[in-house]
Design goal:
Distance between the termini: 79 Å
CATH architecture of the largest domain: Orthogonal Bundle
Helix content: 40-55%
CATH superfamily of the largest domain: Winged helix-like DNA-binding domain superfamily/Winged helix DNA-binding domain
Order of helices and strands: HHHHEHHEHHEEEHHEEHH
CATH topology of the largest domain: Arc Repressor Mutant, subunit A
């Protein structure tokens, strides 16, 4: 196998396996290498670079966009702010794999909200986990739902969507930037499985209910670069204590 093809396989973590396989399977491995090169979009044959180098360049460009968003959203402070290495590493690792603008914006905001005076706060770990499971379509729906829903807070300051958020199917398609209603239905099911929305498409009435959960509202706030509570961020007054 040529060095170039060997390198192209290496980014998928199979080079050690390839090296141990009998030479009689070289043709098969060469075919697999060519296939991986062909289906990996950022590794399209340009400038004569190796597959591994192309993917690295593609990821580096995505990571730079994430960092640029973080720089823009980092709160002004007289103190130097720091982020836990675990969070910086996780945000760049996951964020660099996405070229969706909506997700890059959220990853950048999450990196900004990870910065604190002592750099020891790792509370954004749960949001890294959630965001790493979202598609660009889902990110657009979550952003819309968190911005448009009516909100209320209890006496402890915990905030939730006050009412259901119903939207017509055509508006849902516009928000999702997709006409594939089957995909949108699957994506909403997945958001419900992640406990980021409570409902989904109501086919009998031709509408969808996409009110965000408290978890989704918290994810939205952190992905905007804010470390404030949801009550403070949305300016929602805490309910009066019972008499």
């Amino acid at each position: 196998m040529t060095d170039e093809k060997s390198s192209s396989l290496d980014i998928f973590g199979v080079k050690p396996i390839a090296d141990s396989i009998s030479k009689t399977t070289t043709a098969t491995l060469d075919g697999a290498s060519a296939f991986l090169s062909r289906i990996c979009l950022p590794a399209a044959e340009e400038f004569g670079l190796l597959l591994q180098d192309k993917v690295r360049v593609w990821r580096a460009k995505n990571a730079l966009k994430v960092v640029a968003v973080a720089q823009e959203r980092l709160p002004k402070s007289k103190d130097e702010l720091h982020a836990h290495p675990r969070l910086v590493s996780s945000v760049l690792e996951h964020g660099s794999w996405s070229d969706e603008a909506e997700l890059q914006e959220m990853w950048g905001g999450l990196l900004a909200s990870s910065c604190t005076k002592d750099g020891r706060d790792d509370s954004n770990v749960i949001f890294v986990h959630l965001l790493s499971h979202l598609t660009g379509l889902q990110a657009r729906i979550i952003t819309y739902s968190c911005e448009k829903c009516m909100k209320e807070a209890n006496t402890q300051g915990l905030i939730v969507a006050k009412d259901p958020l119903y939207i017509e199917i055509e508006l849902l398609k516009s928000i999702a930037m997709s006409d594939d209603i089957h995909r949108i239905d699957r994506e909403l099911d997945n958001l419900r499985g992640l406990e980021l929305i409570n409902s989904g498409i109501e086919f009998n009435v031709g509408r969808a209910e996409i009110a965000p959960t408290a978890l989704a509202l918290n994810l939205y706030v952190r992905s905007q670069g804010s470390h404030a509570s949801t009550t403070e961020f949305f300016g929602v007054k805490t309910a009066a204590q019972p008499a």
